[in-house]
Every structure is written in C-alpha cells, then in structure tokens.
Automatic annotation (TrEMBL):
GO MF entries: hydrolase activity
Domain DUF7586 stretches: 355-439
Record's keyword annotation contains Iron: no
Highest taxon above the source species: Bacteria
Protein name: Serine hydrolase
Keywords: Hydrolase
Beta-lactamase-related domain ranges (all copies): 22-334
C-alpha cells in the first residue's frame, strides 16, 4: 500500500510543474514558486523565473500579505484556550478606548464587525508604518461602516486591533509572541517580519507592456498583524499541515477545527467563499478547501489545504498583479488529490476492552416520526445518527463524561442527545434537542409527543 510520505508520481510532478510554468507565463510574473505537502512533509516544489539561472526555490522568501492574518488568529485562539479571554468578550474588555463599540473578538476574527476595510488615506500598503503610529490613525474618525454582527465585511484594521489585543493580554510584542508561540515550535525558521536573504524583490509589471517597476517594501508598523510577514514555500507547507491537523505545541486539533467553521454568511455575491476564525473557506464540487490569500505591492501569495486528504498547496509570486496565486495553490492541491488520492486507513475492529455492551444495544434503526434513521458507534464512545434513505439530518455526536452526547456538526451541532429509560431500566426513546426517536415509527404507548391514535396503523 502506498504511504503518504512516498514521492509523487512523475506524471503528477509534471502536471504540477506545468501549472506553475503556465501561471508564471500567463501571469507575467518575474518569478513563481509552487509547493505541495502531504503526509507531514513537503513532497514537491517547483519554480519558474524570467531570469536564466536565477530560479528561486522553496527556501526563497516572498512577502505573504494577508496570510499573516491566520498567524494572528492562531495567537488569539491560544489566549482563549489559556482562559485569558473569551471569543464573545467585547474587545473593549481587554483593549479599552478603541472607539469601535461593542464588537467582539469573534466578530473581529470572522470579519463581521462592520469595521471599514481599509485605513484612512494614504494607501497603507505603500507607506511606512510611521504614517500610522497608533490605533487612532489606523481606525480614523468613523471606523464602523456597517452594523456589527450582520454580515461579512473584510477589515484590515480589524486584524490590527487583534494584534494589539495579543500584545495587551500577553504583555509582549506581537512579533515576539508570533516567534515564540508559532514559528519556533513549528520549525518555521524562514518566516520573518523583515526579509532575510535569499528573498525575492517586489515588482510591478506594466499592464500593457512587458516592462517592470520596483515596488517599495515598507514595514507596516502597527498594521503588521494584518499583513507584514515574509515566508517561503517550505515554511508555508509546514503551516498548511498544521492547519489540517493541529499541533498541541501551538494549538490543539479541536481549536484549529474551530477556526475552519464559517463564522457568518459568505460575502454578498460570492457564495463560493466563506470565512471562519481567521481562515478563508473555498467551496467547490470536489469538497472545501481552507487557507488564505495574500498580497502587498510587489507580491501575491496563496495557501490552500484539503483537510480531508491532508494536502496543502502553496503559490508565491513577486508581482503586484497578474499571477493568480490563490487559484494556482488550489489547483496544485486538487491535482494531487485527483491523481493520487489518499488511501483510507484499514478497517479494524475495536479492541476487546473498548466494547460497550450498553452502547451496542442502542445501535440500529430509530424513527423520528416516520423518518428512518440508523445509529452506529463512532470513535471514543461517540455515535453517528444518519438517515437510512433519502435526505435528512446527519450528525456526529461526542460522548460527554456525565453521560449522553453533544452534536458536533450539521443541524444538531451543540444539541444534546440523551437516552430516556423506562422505570424498569429498558430504553424508551432517544431525546435529541426535544425530538423523540423511537424503535418503531409512532410506537403505541411510547413517549411520542401528541400521543398515538389508539386504533393504530390502518388502511383506507
């Protein structure tokens, strides 16, 4: 059986390099780097350049723009997991005096605060951070442009506030927290706030002629948590694998999974894109991808991850516009997934000591009214409830220490599932958020809300 750690097939590698070559040529990028990771490691990288003999590799730094926001979000989730703040806390509780009202930390993470997308003039990405020495200069006189909590509206100042929140609660700089809490544990030694050679230079490519113009590379100052970082394809592969599986040294798998859950409705006019807690979500026919795109003058970047398949794709280019790095990163992932899909783990029975006779008695068919469902045992005493035919509400449930279960996804996420027993100890029914599931449809004499006609089932 093929291992995820084995090298890609030559035909797959050629398809990946062809995609990078086409992106560099069609996007008119001075250079372009792509990489793919799976099974815990980078398994492929490739690049193209307009300069013969000066082809960048997976260790060459590019500016990654708003992919920086994902790192800032991870720092905030770490604070939550340590009990230092709550996601539903108003920002003002921990960072008073901002003037943004009662917006919550969760709303900031998911871009549902209603804050403006950009800072007041001048263009913050092409001017030094000293132009905006503090939050008042970042937010301006009217920072709120929409009612909070109602809709998605991307906000760079919002992530500046989150960076300042990290500093206020942690008592250290955003950069120091980033290095000690994420970069060092994940081995991302080539991800830095300022460029470290070898690194690409940023260029603007004329839209109507094949000529170049160098772009300025400014330190963003207080805006750094929204888009400052430089990184490499190899480092972003490491980060992408972390976003798929978590790492207890940085953030648990459960908390990373929480980041991947949509925080609000998608942006108007873009139903294919959602946003979680610091992560973009792309919906497609082949399943969803999570990650983020980034851009700053002279650079564009994309990082996308197929969590189910455990594959991450990275695309980096040094041009202000043209190369569609987000599209290419997603294409790299899908190329590998389609050509070399992950082998499922072998089926194995439960260890003898984990067989729960009481739980086994609950498996099999259950009926909500006349809807037929099946209940089966999942890992760690969890259960799965799913329709036996047609469409319906499928959900996984996690076992609770005090008994019963709580829903993990779908309509029943967060809802309690309990077993209701008769006085003699036998099972009467399942209660799922007040819905009654019985062993037979509308079983006479059982706890069916509204009762059951005494004459029972009949024909016409």
């Amino acid at each position: 059986m093929t291992s995820d750690f084995e090298a890609l097939l030559p035909s797959t590698e050629r398809s990946l390099l062809h995609r990078v070559a086409r992106a560099q040529s069609e996007g008119r990028a001075p250079s372009f780097v792509g990489a793919v990771a799976r099974g815990g490691a980078m398994v492929w990288s490739g690049s193209r350049s307009c300069v013969e003999g000066h082809v960048p590799d997976a260790d060459t730094q590019y500016r990654i723009g708003s992919i920086t926001k994902v790192f800032t979000a991870v720092l905030v989730l770490r604070l939550r997991d340590e009990g230092l703040l709550g996601l539903d806390d108003p920002l003002e509780k921990h960072l008073p005096g901002t003037g943004v009202g009662e917006v919550t930390i969760a709303q900031l993470l998911g871009h549902t605060t209603g804050l403006a997308a950009e800072t007041p003039s001048p263009w913050w990405e092409r001017t030094p951070g000293s132009t905006r020495p503090g939050l008042p200069e970042v937010l301006g006189e009217k920072p709120v442009v929409h009612p909070a909590g109602r809709s998605f509206h991307y906000s760079n100042p919002g992530y500046t506030l989150l960076g300042s929140l990290v500093e206020a609660v942690r008592g250290t700089s955003w950069e120091e927290a980033l290095r000690g809490e994420i970069l060092e544990p994940l081995g991302m030694g080539r991800t830095t706030v300022d460029p470290v050679a070898p690194h690409a230079s940023g260029w603007a490519v004329h839209p109507w002629a094949d000529v170049l113009l160098p772009e300025p590379s400014e330190h963003l100052g207080v805006m750094a948590p929204a888009g400052q970082l430089w990184s490499t394809a190899a480092d972003l592969c490491r980060f992408g694998l972390f976003l798929a599986a978590g790492d207890d040294r940085v953030l648990s798998a459960a908390s990373v999974a929480e980041m991947r859950v949509p925080a609000g409705p998608p942006a108007v006019g873009d139903p294919q894109m959602g946003y979680g807690l610091g992560l973009q979500i792309a919906y497609g026919e082949g399943g969803s991808l999570i990650g983020h795109g980034g851009s700053l003058p002279g650079f564009v970047a994309g990082l996308w991850v197929d969590v189910e398949q455990g594959v991450a794709g990275v695309a980096l280019a040094n041009a202000t516009s043209g190369p569609l790095t987000g599209v290419v990163a997603a294409d790299l992932v899908r190329t590998v997934v389609e050509a070399e899909p992950r082998f499922p783990e072998p089926w194995r029975p439960l260890p003898a000591g984990e067989v729960d006779r009481e739980l086994l008695e609950l498996t099999g068919p259950w009926y909500w009214g006349t809807y037929a469902y099946g209940l089966r045992v999942g890992p760690e005493r969890g259960v799965v409830l799913e329709p036996l035919r047609g469409t319906g509400r499928r959900a996984r449930f996690r076992a609770l220490p005090e008994g019963g279960w709580v829903g993990l996804d779908g309509y029943y996420a967060g809802e309690a599932l309990t077993v209701v027993r008769r006085p003699d100890g036998g099972v009467s029914h399942l209660d799922l958020g007040s819905f009654v599931f019985t062993r037979e449809p509308y079983e006479p004499g059982d706890a069916v809300p509204g009762g059951v006609d005494e004459a029972g089932w009949r024909g016409l």
